[in-house]
Specification:
Layout: H1 3-8, H2 21-33, H3 38-44, H4 49-61, H5 66-84, H6 93-100
Helix pairs in contact: 2-5, 5-6
């Protein structure tokens, strides 16, 4: 399992590996602002190689000027909030990856 499953709180992931959506996106916003580095977040969240693949794919979506980056982060955040609640169309890791384009 990878970062997507950890953020979705997938039942196949041990609870100790779960990442609260709001915590993750606070960290993502701080990366964009320059207060944290991607390496610091990867270490703090004890990311495995599969986690890093998803993380790097998400980071690659965050491009452009600051406002554009924050808009993408907000969109990703919204997708994961819906995924955590298992909304129709956001209820599997494959569906979430599809919604995000990764």
């Amino acid at each position: 399992m990878a970062l997507i499953e950890r953020l979705m709180h997938d039942s196949s992931e041990p609870t100790t590996r779960w990442i609260p959506v709001h915590d993750f996106f606070a960290a993502a916003s701080e990366i964009e602002r320059g207060a944290l580095t991607s390496a610091q977040v990867k270490t703090a969240l004890d990311m495995t190689a599969p986690d890093i693949v998803d993380f790097d794919a998400l980071v690659a979506l965050v491009t452009g000027a600051a406002a554009a980056k924050l808009a993408v982060i907000q969109r990703i955040h919204a997708v994961f909030i819906l995924a955590e609640g298992r909304w129709t169309g956001y209820d599997t890791p494959a569906a979430v990856r599809s919604k995000l384009g990764i």
